[in-house]
Amino acid sequence: MSEQRPTITPYPDGPLLVRGDIDLRTADGEPIERRRRTVALCRCGLSTIKPFCDGTHKAAGFRTDD
Amino acid sequence: MSLDVRPAALAAPFRPRGPLSEAVLARLTGQPGQPGDAGLAALADRALTETVDVVRDDDVQLALFALFASSYGSFDQFEADLEWDGELIGARRQLEADFEQALRAAVQVPALPTSTTDAVARALFALTAQEGGPSLSRYLAKRATREQVLELLVQRSVYTLREADPHSWAIPRLHGRAKAALVEIQADEYGGGRPDRVHAAIFAASMRGAGLDDSYGSYVDVVPALTLASHNMMSMFGLNRRLIGAIVGHLAAFEMTSSIPNRLYGDGFRRLGFGEDVTDYFDEHVEADAVHEQIAAHDLAGALAEDRPDLLPDIMFGAAACVTIDGWVAQQMLDAWHDGGTSLRVPV
Ligand code: FES
User: What is the reported pTM?
Assistant: First the structure.
């Protein structure tokens, strides 16, 4: 059975959910530890645990066009 | 194996709070009835007739808690053979009927959105954005004393040492994408294959780190009826197939009111000098529940409403019930602390 290709799914007014085997890296190329199978990447820019989402986009009223 | 090697009936794991819970505990622990005992149906009937508020009734909520605990297998003292005992199940159904009716009367459900994934997700985010919960987390972050943050752990232990279990009852009752979404969330709740990362185990470690007893049920005697009611509500929604919409809505609202409050709880524990062994649980939930809330709103509740529009009213009811009852629990704690007291029946 071949590995499913990884997916990145935008959720309306919220983060990008990443499923599947991908490496996350910092700007310097350092690996970022991934602690769960599905991760949410912040796209509002306001999370305190970037690159992951911490739910702050809700209180900030972040809106996307989807 | 013959029946006579069974151990003698064990003492109940917590104390009764009235004639109904006393009889239920005696029955669940296999104590033989006494001649002249009123039947469970009659005791349940009397408790329900006499109570002024079934949601805050200690005897009723403790009886329900014990009956559900029998299904979870929470206590070795409750005999496995009695899980489906006709009289116990009969009493549970009597109590559930009145409890559900009281919840439906008390909970204001917002106007129903259309049955599309997007509209339902938006309605759920709107509903949970109004909740009063963060005031408890803000208080924890800024002002709570050491005793008060320990009380929070004690209050939460009734659910959190069994975190995720009430919602797992829904898995076989769902199909297709809603089932896949629930399993995606629950797999993460249960540690993604790592026993030490099971959320209930992380919470147990936090309790130990704070010097509290992490064995399940050790604080049942000290929590008020409302705390039991909040857990009983989830158990009732989860264990009754006809309430599948309500347990899904409950999970969505629960996840949506979690990541920001957990950051604030973590801040409170850090402020008071607790270490990472205690804050790990809260920090884990900031990241985890920001993932779960998206899956729960869109892929679970939204998709279920689209696939089964008949369940939409209960999805919204379950979500509103979560926000309402957990708001009452939080308010009760804040009120007690405001008056300089404890939110527990007996301080620990
Ligand atoms: S997208 Fe969630 S905090 Fe930025």
Answer: 0.94
